[in-house]
Amino acid sequence: MRPDDVIRLRHILDAAREAVGFVRNRCREDLNHDRQLVRTTVGRTTKTITISIPPEMDKQIEQVMRAEGRTRSELLREALRRYMDERRLRALSLEIGQNAREAGLAKEEQVNELIYARRHGAE
User: Fold this and answer.
1) What is the dihedral of CA 115, 119, 120, 123, to 10 degrees?
2) Distance separating the N- and C-terminal Cα atoms of the chain
3) pTM exceeds 0.70, yes or no
């Protein structure tokens, strides 16, 4: 078994022990009155997914994990957040360009004014 698999199993076991301790001496009726109990036992705030990556990329991820003291999940969540932010920015840029062409704006300062207005909620 790989060392990270052992670590992962220990984390799972720790989480299971903590969950058992948290619900000990509780009953179904407690779910109606204890919001923290509901959050910890009923719904997850994250979803587990499986992805495939090349071995070299995995090595790079592990190097960053060690260097920054972060988990793989933290690094991949950050990478996905950045990708989604960049994607939204590209879409916004295309929309602004289209709006500028439709409005007959040709000068850079006119486009900059449109960008400023869009970013600050003015229509």
Assistant:
1) 60
2) 59
3) no
CA–CA separation, 45 vs 38, rounded Å?
Answer: 12
If phi > 0 it is left, if psi is from -120 to 50 it is alpha, else beta; for residue 107 that is beta
Length of the chain: 123
- Report the SS3 class of residue 99: helix
- The tens digit of pLDDT for each residue in 47-92 reads 788 999 999 999 999 999 999 988 898 899 899 999 999 999 989 8
Give the count of beta carbons closer than 10 Å to the beta carbon of residue 100: 19
Q: In 3D, which of 117, 81, 84 has the Cα closest to residue 99?
A: 117
Q: Which two tokens mark 35?
A: 């919001």
Nearest Cα to 114, choosing from 102, 96, 101, 98?
Answer: 96
